[in-house]
Amino acid sequence: MSTQLFGEKVPRVEDQRFLRGQGRYVDDVLVDTPSATLHAAVLRSPHAHARILDIDVSDVIDMDGVHLVWTHEDLAGAMAEPLPLLIPHPALTHGRTQYTLAKDTVNYVGEAVAFVVADDRYLAEDALGRISVSYEPLPAVVGIESARAAENLVHDDVPGNVAARMEQNVGDAPTAIDAAPHVLELDLSIERSAAMPLEGRGTVARWDHDTSRLQVWTSTQASTGVRAAVAAKLELDLGQVDVICPDTGGGFGVKINHPWPEDLLVTRAAQVTGQAVKFTEDRREHFISAAHERAQEHHIRVGFDDQGRVQGLDVEFWHDNGAYTPYGLIVPIITSTQLLGPYKPANYRVRFDSLYTNTVIVTPYRGAGRPQGCFAMERTIDAIAAHLGLDRTAVRAANLIQPDEFPYDQGLIFQDGRPLIYDSGDYPAMLEKIRKLIGWDEFEQFKAEAEAEGRRVGIGLGCYVEGTGVGPYEGAHVHVETSGKVKVATGLTTQGQGHQTAFAQVVADTLDVPMEDVEVVTGDTRRMSYSVGTFASRAAVMSGSAMHLAALRAKEKALRLAADALEADEADLKMVDGSVQVKGSPSNSIALGTLAVLSNPLRYAFDKASQAATQFSVGDQDKPPVDEDDEPGLEGRDFYSPNRSTFASGMHAAIVETDPETAEIKILRYAIVHDCGRMINPMIVEGQIHGGMAQGIGGALYERMAYDDSGQLLNASFMDFLMPYVTEIPGEIDVDHLETPSPLNPLGIKGAGEAGVIPVSAAIAAAVENAEGFSITSMPISPAELYDLRQRHAEHTSTTSARPPKQDGSGEESA
Known about the structure:
InterPro entries: Ald_Oxase/Xan_DH_a/b, Ald_Oxase/Xan_DH_a/b_sf, Ald_Oxase/xanthine_DH-like, AldOxase/xan_DH_MoCoBD1, AldOxase/xan_DH_MoCoBD2, AldOxase/xan_DH_Mopterin-bd_sf. This is Carbon-monoxide dehydrogenase large subunit. This protein folds into three domains: 191 residues, Aldehyde oxidase/xanthine dehydrogenase, a/b hammerhead (Aldehyde Oxidoreductase, domain 3, Alpha-Beta Complex); 249 residues, Aldehyde oxidase/xanthine dehydrogenase, molybdopterin binding domain (Aldehyde Oxidoreductase, domain 4); 169 residues, Aldehyde oxidase/xanthine dehydrogenase, molybdopterin binding domain (Aldehyde Oxidoreductase, domain 4, 2-Layer Sandwich), CATH 3.30.365. 28% of the residues lie in helices and 24% in strands. The protein contains 20 helices and 29 strands. It is globular, with a radius of gyration of 29 Å. 52% of the residues are buried.
């Protein structure tokens, strides 16, 4: 393929529209007139766990301007059944999903209980206030410790609050650890956080009685998934439902879950009322009724030799999946498999329990289980280095998979049900790059100079491997118009990743047309009916590859048509700047637009262009106007379905300063080396990395979901939920790239969307630990927590220094 645009830092074509305020989001969707659109509001549970005794809506039914009010009793058929469990798994023995509107019990603060549609949102909200619900509060299970204790149950029919228990083994880890020269044990944890996209969830629906068709506009990462779910629940044919995903102000994983109760309620309400119905959640609703992620606790036992080489790794962890499991076990499975990173422990055992709590559901959030696994592994590597008195990079080097070992089979089953086989990489080269980029060898001198000034500084490192481009497939349609413009469609959605630019680069290169002639549409089921969605860093790998293949089909047809028109052999033709030329004879050419005309032999001529394509045009009289194995139009359609995932990788390093008095943590410098195979657009890749890093800093230092013991979320607003501003992001970010092409797809690319967030907590924890001189085992870490750790460390140091040395006598080292 041509590389005219592939690999170039082409400015994003979509940015000007957004910067000028010309974006069109779900809440901007205008169906008919403003007064013709009804507005919905949802009554949500104030209790984390309670039995519903009675719901009285009598004061709402006759309110002027209220068109309907529903509780679970008003739903019928599939709408009255639980929401789908999207990704079943054999280990998910006790999967549970919520009802569209709560039936009998509520299991988290924010669960939908009643639904109102009125003339406007104000009236709908007022109506909610008139609904009277009688609850019998039940004990709430909040947090992993409470769930494990199982003194109370979230669901009466789920013993021990265990939704799933899963184990994978490579070799014999317990035996290898017992035989290892050195053994350590660690307990690590990461708390809950959430995606918090700029735009919350929203849905608009319109039902056309004349055609029996439903149109849905929704802010989602899976338009075709929403389409299928709505059709199933409303008992419609798939062809009766169109789902359009307009501009979307961020997703980060929270919008991959589908259907939300509001999706179904709004679409059904549009059917019943015969008018367009809109729901737009407010920010508090997003906090208490969307989805969270991250919370896990890990217990690790590791055996290693004198060089720090891991001989056995045994990991047990507990995952908080919230009150329900609509997205299955994807997050903990990813943690359990991606925890290994770029390393090759000889023996590995991992077990996890996925636990119910009376809190908001957990679905993937950018990184999707990888930050937790990376934190666990990198903290373990640092602990090994500290125990042996070795440089932390030396211990990493001793455990890295080598370039000549690819493809490398880790012996595990990944989230897609396929073998965890790394396709390509060069981890030793990456380690050398990050050492130089951050100034690893020069840091000790800097640290000594800072300490002489009374300052505390530390350096940390985090390494990861990220499974990307997960299947099962994505498709694309490429259509060359008679104007020469190229229309491209994929069902995969976009939430700000720069798809319109990167995908246009792929198609423009394949067809050798000007990029400004390529228009890309995503997330519209009318244009592309079959798709999976945007998640798991899969868009470029999946849709990018599909677009390349579809464009190749269009190219093959263009060359075939041009060979006839130019009376030349196909082998003597080439595509140049929107036309097909005879090699060595640029003047002997034909424009793609003209070929598009010729590709469609019409009966009727509508304009000058179509006159050349009527069925009465002079041509080869010995064959039909359209070949038996062809179809009209200059277009190509194809799908890409990989054997398994590609595996991107990266390493982050941070230098931090911790204030001796206030315990504030400041990032002085940050460095990143990243490998996503061949880069379509390095500028977009770096933008994704910078954005992910900012979210990672939020998760490392600021963001947490603060639940009290009764299950109330105490910080459900941006006044209380801390997010990093630009002032908290380091001004000095050095990024370098390594490109090891993937052999699994035609473009040699790997995903990049989640790369920036994965190792941030690990790198910052290591840097803080290096600055302070004591272990950091839990994230996020606030100044108050760091201050408390200092106090406990000082007390422990003074206590142990006052005791005589303890003689074990066993000859074994304790952790």
